Amino acid sequence: MSSSPSPVETPTASAGRRGTGFGIVPATEADVPDLIEMIGELARFEGLSEELEVTADSLRAAMFGRHPAAGALIARIGGEVAGYAVYYRTFSTFVGRPGIFLEDLYVRPSFRQGGLGRALLVAVARIGVALGDGRFEWIALRWNESALRFYRGLGARPMDDWALLRMNRRDVAQLLRTPNHYSHD
Question: How many Å apart are CA 168 and CA 11, to the nearest integer?
Answer without folding.
Answer: 33
